[in-house]
Amino acid sequence: MSQIVHTEGESNTSSARKAWMKESIGPKSSPLLKRDANAFLHQSLSSPCVSTIAKAEGIWVEDLDGRRYMDFHGNSVHHIGYGHPRLITAIKAQLDDLSFAPRRFTNDPAVELAEKLAEIAPDDLGKMLFTTGGSDANEVALKIARAATGRFKTISFWDAFHGAGFGAASVGGEATFRSHIAGPLLPGAEHVAPFACYRCPYNHAGPDTCGLACAKMVEFVLEREGDVAAVIAEPMRAVPYVPPSGFWKAVREACNRHGALLIMDEIPTGLGKTGKMFAFEHDEIIPDIVTLGKALGGGILPIAACIARTKLDVCGDFAIGHYTHEKNPVTARAALTTIQIIEDEGLVDRAAELGEHAMDRLMGELQNIPIVGDIRGRGLMFGVEIVDDRADKTPGNARAERIYYACLEAGLSYKISQGCVLTLSPPLTITRKDLDCAIDIVVNAIKDEC
């Protein structure tokens, strides 16, 4: 693995990047970066990379030259930190016991994981299918929705991310994953404007009015189209954006009225990241289908899950996943152990407690800084939006990039979302001391940019 940062909206040839590469890349990292650039297809947000990685442990990554970084990005896989000893022990034991299972032969770890997910999911979310990645889990969810409703249309949000496959990219709304594709994407993929209170023209009217205004956009399309199979969305956008008060209750009721399913993509937000096991629990609703991924494999192995209401088990006569590693005992053991670690170490409550502390500190130290347009988040997923002009909310992309590289130089890695949002998502295992150290780095870099 050679990538330690993920900076959305950053140009690979930006002046800030060039300066970083020239001044901060050591002699051991430089050759591997060149080999990486020569070997891999280049794509936005990935290759070429900005540094190397030689070690990953807890909240830390270390490059080949010994430079260490607190990782507040981690592709959202490192809820329990990197290389959790209990997880490594469980994976090694499973490799010795049973390393693979063909789909048509069941095994104890796979069944136990399915039962555990049904236990932690609310209500009758009790039927599931495992995939190797979140994009595939969302594809399965879309197939279930079509089969259950006899419809094919969807509603989702512009700027949302649901994966890189054709179906997932179709319901997603990020230009990076759509604009390069020649020809049509999935038919019937309708999009509406996302909830985003900071830039919403209705936010002056109060959160309840704002929430209802956003939800009415969804119901308008549900009513106009009349044959929508599902609304698919992130319960809290990982940008991050927290939904307005009452938003998801209104959408849930609209789906019920118009016969559409509600799919919650919990791939970055689930398993405790926001201070609840599932982010939708903050909004007191229950979806029809939930997808999990990323952190489910404990930051070591790839596994994702599609969890559906029991009554949606309607696809027995045809294949909706059919993945080679659908019931892999090793990835299933990794996921099961990850959930057990989250529960046994009280990491969901820890995320809520530390997230509140982080937001209090950021609000206390940055709310009057002129280049800070907004501070928002839930649990250990929070962000600071950088602007050039607070009055007209002009995005401060260049400022955000300079702040990012200043933080990286100081030993903190994270990602920039939407060009100007410093998006901070540390492991749930982080200590308060390390969290405060990271916040100090961000605050100082922002103040130095003023």
TrEMBL record:
InterPro entries: Aminotrans_3, PyrdxlP-dep_Trfase, PyrdxlP-dep_Trfase_major, PyrdxlP-dep_Trfase_small. It holds the Pfam family Aminotran_3. One of its GO terms (molecular function) is pyridoxal phosphate binding. CDD domains: OAT_like. Keywords: Aminotransferase, Pyridoxal phosphate, Transferase. The keyword Transferase applies. It comes from the Bacteria. Belongs to the class-III pyridoxal-phosphate-dependent aminotransferase family. PANTHER family: AMINOTRANSFERASE, AMINOTRANSFERASE CLASS-III. This is 4-aminobutyrate aminotransferase apoenzyme. It comes from Ruegeria faecimaris. The lineage of its organism: Bacteria, Pseudomonadati, Pseudomonadota, Alphaproteobacteria, Rhodobacterales.
